[in-house]
Design goal:
Chain A is α/β, with parallel strands linked by helices. The first copy, chain A, has two domains: about 240 residues, nicotinate phosphoribosyltransferase, CATH 3.20.140.10; about 170 residues, Aldolase class I (TIM Barrel, Alpha-Beta Barrel). Chain A is about 40% helix and about 20% strand. Chain A is elongated and about 80 Å long. Chains A and B meet through α1, α3, α6, α7 and α8 of A and α1, α3, α6, α7 and α8 of B.
Amino acid sequence: MTPISPLLTDLYELTMAAAYFKQGIEAPATFSLYTRRHPLRGYFVAAGLEAILAFVEDLRFGTEDIDYLRNTGLFEEAFLSYLSALRFEGDIWALPEGTIFFADEPILEVTAPIIQSQILETILINAVGLATLIATKAARCVHAAQGRSLIDFSLRRTQGADAGLTVARSSYLAGFDATSNVLAGKQYGIPIAGTMAHSFVMAFEREIDAFRAYARLFPQRTLLLVDTYDTLVGARNAAQVAQEMRIQGHPLVGVRLDSGDLNALSRQVRAILDQADCKEVKIFASGGLDEYTLDQLLRQNAPIDAFGVGTSMGVSADAPYLDMVYKMVQFNGQPVRKRSFGKATLAGEKQIFRCASREGEYVEDVIALRSETMPEGYPLLQPVMRAGHRLHPPADLVELRSLFQQNFKLLAQAYKGLTNPPRYPVGLSRQLMEMQDY
Amino acid sequence: MTPISPLLTDLYELTMAAAYFKQGIEAPATFSLYTRRHPLRGYFVAAGLEAILAFVEDLRFGTEDIDYLRNTGLFEEAFLSYLSALRFEGDIWALPEGTIFFADEPILEVTAPIIQSQILETILINAVGLATLIATKAARCVHAAQGRSLIDFSLRRTQGADAGLTVARSSYLAGFDATSNVLAGKQYGIPIAGTMAHSFVMAFEREIDAFRAYARLFPQRTLLLVDTYDTLVGARNAAQVAQEMRIQGHPLVGVRLDSGDLNALSRQVRAILDQADCKEVKIFASGGLDEYTLDQLLRQNAPIDAFGVGTSMGVSADAPYLDMVYKMVQFNGQPVRKRSFGKATLAGEKQIFRCASREGEYVEDVIALRSETMPEGYPLLQPVMRAGHRLHPPADLVELRSLFQQNFKLLAQAYKGLTNPPRYPVGLSRQLMEMQDY
C-alpha cells in the first residue's frame, strides 16, 4: 500500500493540536480504540494493526503538507515548525490481528503526549475499522461455507482502491483461500485466482471455441464460465472440452455458474458432468453470495465445491460500518471518561483477560485494569510499540491466518450463529468498576 | 490521489488478455458501463470520470508489475512483452460528472481493441461505482437539508483511505459545503472545516477553560462542542465565552451538539443562547445523521443551522453498493449481448437523449443508438477521449458542482422523494429495440 499521508485526518485533530501546543499541554494521554455493540455481529476479528504500525512509525509531515497548512491561514508558524518535527514517541498495546474479540473490549490503546495520541484518531479508526469489519464478515462466510473453498471476488465493488487491498488481506486472514485481486497477490503474497468473463465467451464465434482457447493456454488451471447463453448447453460444452483436455493429459479444474438458481443448476450441471465421466470436474459458483446464501445452499446440499464471494463480503453489505471509537481514558495519570448520554466510556488503561475451559474453549472475558493480574484468565492485549518503535517485525500473514483459525476453533458454535447469536459474556473487574466512580 | 497500479484488477482480465493475444484476437470491442435498478434510489449522480481518465491516459505496466506476473508462472514471455508496451489507444464517451442519470442508462462507453477495453473493467466499475454511489447519497442529503449547510465528517468511517478522498470530492460535487478531510482539501481544493473532540474538553480542568483556549487561538472560526458532560450546562458556558469573545470583537460561530435528542436539545440550547443575547451563535448538529434523520429534524422545525454528516453518507449505509456492470455491447462491428437469466444486456453503441419541458424540466429519457439523432431531446453522453488522448483538460470541481446543481433543479420534486419515488420514464428508441432481435 502507498504510504498514508498524515493530512488524511480530520481538521479538528490539527486545530486541537495547535491549541494544546499554544497552551503548553503535553501531558501523556491514553486513548482506547473499541467498537460498540452491533446488532448483526456477535463477535469481531481484529485486523489492520500492521498498516497502523507502519503508518505510526513513519509519521512525518512533509514540506508540501506544511505548505498547505500554512496556506489555510489557520496555524501559527511556531506550531507548523513543531508539526514538521513531530514524531510518534509513545506506546501502543494491541490485540494481535486474527484475535476474536467482542463489543466494548479495547482493540488497541495508545499512550503518548496528548498531541501525539490524539492525532492518530481518524486514521486509526479508519484503518482498523475497515480491516476488522471485513475480517469479521469474511469469518462469517468461512463459517457458513463449512470447509468449502472461498475466493475473494470483490475488487470491482469495494469502496475504492485501497479498500480492495484491505478486503483481500482481511478475507485471507479470516480463512479465504485466494483473491482475484492481482495487486493484493503482489503486495501480500496471497494466492490469486480467476476464471473468465462473459465477454470472453462472446468474443468467439461459438462458446466451445472460447473454452478451447482458454484451456489450451491455461491447461493446469482452467475454470469454464458456462452461463453466458444457456447453462446446461454450456455444461455439455465444458464436458466435451474436459474430455479433449484429458487426452492431452490435463484435467479441467471446473465450471463456474454465475446466475440463476444455483441449487437447481448445480444439480443439473453435476449430472451432466457425471454422465460425461467428468466426476473430477468441480463446480464453482458465484453471483450475489454472502454468508446467508452460502448457508442456504449448503443446507440444500447443492453440489458446489467452491464459491466466489464478492460484493456483499467486500462492503460488509448487511453491516457496512462498525461503531468504532477512539476515546481518551486517562490523562496526566488520572482516569477520565466522557459521560454523554448513551455514549459513556470506561476510564483507565485496560487489559482483557480471557477465561477458557479445560479444553481451551472460551468461557468469559473480563475487562480489567492493565495493572491487574488475573490467574483465571490470560491477557489478550500485547505491547506492540514502545517509545515510537515497533517491538516486533511485521507479522507473517500466513501465521496470522493460523492464529485466527486457532482462535475461531475455541469459540463455541453457538456464538458463531449467523442470526441472533447469544451474547458472549464480557465482565468488568471490580477494580475497573470502582475506577468508574472516581 | 496516488496513481492506481494496473495490477489493481481481477486476475481474469489478464488471463483473458493473454488468451486474446495468443489467438490474435484484436478486433475493437465496445463496453458499456451502467447500473441496474436499485430499490432505494430513484436517480443517480454521475461521478468518478476524472480519476478514470487520468488512470487510462497513464496506464502502463511497470517492470515490477511484469516481474510479479512472470513469477506467477501463468504468462508467456511474448504476452509479458506485449503488456509492458501496452497503452490505451481507444475512445471513450461519458456523462459529465454531476449529470443526473437513471438505471440501465450507459454512464460511459469504451471502444478499443478488445484487450484494451476489457482490461479496464475492474478499475472502472470500482472507481465510477464508488464516486457515483456517494454523489447520489450526498445529493439525497442535500435535498433533505433544504438549503442548510452540510459538512462531510465521514473520514473516520469511510471504507479505507482513498474512499475518504472520494467521499469528500463526491459529496462536495453534490452540494456539500466543506469537508473535515484535510488531504481532500489539499488535493481537490475543497473548503475544510472542523470543531473539537470530547477529549479536548476533557484535557482541561473545566469545560469553559477548553472553550476559552480554543476561542483565543481560532477567534474567527470557533465552534464549541457542548455535550461532553451536560449539554445545557455546556451551552451556558458557550454563551459566556461568546460574550467574552464579543468584547474582543470576535463572534462565536456556533455550538455543536453530537448526542441525545437533537430536536429537543437544539430548542433548549437555542433558548439558552437567545436569552444570553447570542442570537447570532449558530447551532450545528452531528451524530448518526443521514437524509432520513435530516428530513425528520427539519419537519420538526428543529432550530439547527448546519449539519455534520458522517458515517451513513460516507459508506452509503442504506445502499452500500450499486449493481454496476461493464458489458460488451459490440464486437468487431457487430452488436452483441449476453442473455443470462435476469442479467441480459442491451447490444449496440448508445446515446441517451433527454427530453425536457419548455421550462427545461426533465420529462423523459430515451436510450438510442449512438448513430441516431433525436430532435425532441438533447444527447447526454459526450466524447471525452479519442485514440487514447483526453479531449479536454481536467474539469474544474466548482464547475462540476454547478453542473450538478443545474441538473438537480430540472429534476421534478417527485423523483427526489426519499422513499418510493415514482420511476422516471426511460424508453428505448425503435432502432435500439430492433437491434436486440438481431
